[in-house]
Design goal:
Helix content is 22%, strand content 30%. It is of the alpha/beta class. It is globular.
Length: 355
């Protein structure tokens, strides 16, 4: 009996293409490569754009660079993890929760989120539009990164963010969508660039009577929210005034005060942000809580276009977002984490700052 042996021939100078992963397979594949060790790469099959089809590409490379030192807890008690990486060469933040994976992609017109669920071929696509942006920059923004290995850094400070989603937001988006659109990219930058020596725990709260349903849109909205947050913290046995590392933010649908999309105590513990404002408003108010100031906000020139840092107070439609803080504000925020507030005798920190 004759046996024929066959071999797959590969042309000289070429390499076998890695297998591609479909949207319904991504969550399982993501968990597999993370368990095998990072960094890791996944060839992800997405609906091709005309540009990709013309280039003969039908997939994007998802790179998972590192696990971020953050613990995310949503209102249903589900713990989630965050990862930093890139999709198609563009920086992204990834949130892995339950049977779902959200990939947050910063772009010049807002935050684009694509979501994948186990065994579901449908890709969820959400764009958190930048309300103040009406024109398209000529050159897309590319965020610059510092090469920081978060897995090898010594974490010597833990910050806790209590994010309260107002009841009026719930009819518009879930806490999970709020995280993917407004917070995930901020965490990625904070842990890799601004405060790489910290661990940040984020807990989302919603549908709490007397807390997430309080009235606002009046001149004393921040004062009312601060009192509410203090009362809730006392009932939950959570430190409020005895630490500068616990923060309490109420995310609303409409402006907290007339013509004000965000307000915070400078270097304090409580703030309010409206998702009807520019989508960096959450990052802006968190910046105030950690010591960043408007005066150190900056316009920067990156990758062929002008962009505004998180704390820059004046928005212009034709400028992009830098998705980070200026160097001066980064120094202020690091100093605040280590040294605490410059207003130690004030129960609220510094003065209220409106945006």
């Amino acid at each position: 009996m004759a046996f024929a042996a066959t071999m797959a021939m590969v042309a000289p100078g070429t390499q076998a293409q890695p297998p591609t992963t479909t949207p319904s397979e991504l969550v399982a594949r993501f968990d597999q490569v993370v368990n095998e060790g990072l960094p890791a790469r996944i060839e992800l099959t997405l609906q091709g754009t005309r540009k990709k089809r013309e280039a003969g590409r039908d997939s994007d490379t998802l790179v998972i660079e590192s696990r971020l030192p953050a613990d995310i807890v949503f209102a249903d008690g589900v713990h989630s993890e965050m990862f930093s990486g890139a999709l198609g060469g563009k920086p992204v933040a990834m949130t892995r929760r339950d049977d779902h994976l959200d990939i947050s992609i910063p772009k010049e017109d807002g935050m684009h989120v694509i979501g994948f669920t186990t065994n579901d071929p449908v890709v969820e696509r959400i764009r958190v539009a930048d309300t103040g942006l009406t024109g398209d920059p000529a050159v897309p923004l590319r965020r610059e990164r510092r090469e920081i290995d978060t897995n090898n850094n010594i974490v010597n400070r833990t910050v806790t963010l209590n994010m309260f989603v107002h009841d009026d937001v719930m009819g518009y988006m879930t806490p999970e969508h709020v995280h993917a659109g407004y917070v995930a990219w901020w965490l990625d930058d904070a842990l890799r660039t601004t405060m790489p020596f910290t661990k940040i725990d984020v807990t989302y709260h919603s549908l709490i009577r007397g807390v997430t349903d309080i009235p606002y849109m009046h001149a004393k909205a921040l004062i009312d929210w601060t009192r509410t947050a203090k009362r809730w913290a006392e009932e939950e046995d959570i430190a409020y005034e005895d630490t500068h590392l616990n923060k309490f933010m109420l995310i609303t649908l409409l402006p907290p005060e007339s013509k004000v999309t965000g307000i915070a105590w400078q270097e304090g513990n409580s703030a309010m942000s409206a998702i009807s404002g520019r989508y960096r408003i959450v990052a802006h108010e968190l910046g105030h809580l950690f010591g960043a100031v408007h005066e150190n906000g900056a316009i920067q020139y990156k990758s062929g276009w002008w962009c505004e840092s998180n704390m820059y107070p004046f928005a212009w439609a034709f400028r992009s977002n830098c998705y980070t803080y200026s160097d001066d504000n980064q120094r202020r925020m690091r100093a605040y984490i280590v040294e605490g507030t410059q207003w130690p005798d004030s129960p609220e920190g510094g003065p209220p700052v409106v945006n």
